[in-house]
Amino acid sequence: MSTRIQANLPHMSSVMVKIAELLLEHPTLPLELSITELAERAGTSAATVTRFCRQIGFSGYVQFRVGVASDSGRGDAHESWRADIGRAFAPEDTPGEVLSTLLHAHVRSLETTARQMDLAAVTAIAGAIATAPHLDIYGIGGSAGMALEMQGRLYRIGINAHCWSEVHSGLTSAAILGDGAVAIGISNTGRTEETIQMLSQAKSSGAFTISLSNNARSPLATVADVNVITAAPEQFLQPDDLSAKHSQLFVLDLLYLLVAQHNSAETAAKLAASAMAVSEHRRPARRDARTTTRKGGGR
């Protein structure tokens, strides 16, 4: 692997050279670090690590990691498990042990997020959303699902909210935002390039910008006017574990409720109207036959 990296050095950009130098000094790092952790160690982005992998002949980081494992003689199933699942879980753990570890990770993430939250800032964000003429929410990959869920809930209570998970469409929307508009960028690491670009464009257009990530010093946080920080997974869990997303959903749920409170009467009216509109598409709750028999005096 070192020979392959050195052969491609003359064709690498300066940011890729940082990755190359790090790996030449520590060739087995990819077996221990996720793509995000390796990018952070090299002082670059996950997208740059992916481009680096392609530069030296691999289709992505996973394939590169397999190549490193093969070269180092550590390409066994146990090492692959540690690299991709994390060191908090072991293949031989009982279901009970997996459950306990997972529960602890999720609870700890939620509690840490709540403790470090700037509630005054979150309340101010909710007020801005409640009165905004237009709200953009940006998210890529796993964050796109959360952006879509938040958009749907806010739209139902009268917020002119739109979510964007494709960068061209998101940039188009961000470019036509104006004063009073609000834009939220969701990225666990705060290093997703497309989300950074969309939020940056929204800020340039005059929108009030908010980042939701686990790193107050991330590129996304640097772009935003206000940052909401969620707890990152523990040391031996992968940074893209669902415990991290759970914390972000917790914050989004809080924002939704605070926005709903801003004009509770109007919120209640809109929720009732939307519930009525879809009522015919929901099957009625099934009554318990035993309860019906007892109430009717049957056997």
From TrEMBL:
Residues 279-291 have a biased composition (Basic and acidic residues). Keywords: DNA-binding, Transcription, Transcription regulation. CDD domains: SIS_RpiR (cd05013). PROSITE patterns: HTH_RPIR (PS51071), SIS (PS51464). Residues 125-265 form the SIS domain. It comes from the Bacteria. InterPro entries: Homeodomain-like_sf, HTH_RpiR, RpiR-like, RpiR-like_SIS, SIS_dom, SIS_dom_sf, WH-like_DNA-bd_sf. Residues 1-75 form the HTH rpiR-type domain. One of its GO terms (biological process) is carbohydrate derivative metabolic process. Pfam families: HTH_6, SIS. Residues 279-299 are annotated as: Disordered. GO terms for molecular function: carbohydrate derivative binding; DNA binding; DNA-binding transcription factor activity. PANTHER family: GLUCOKINASE, HTH-TYPE TRANSCRIPTIONAL REGULATOR HEXR-RELATED. This is MurR/RpiR family transcriptional regulator.
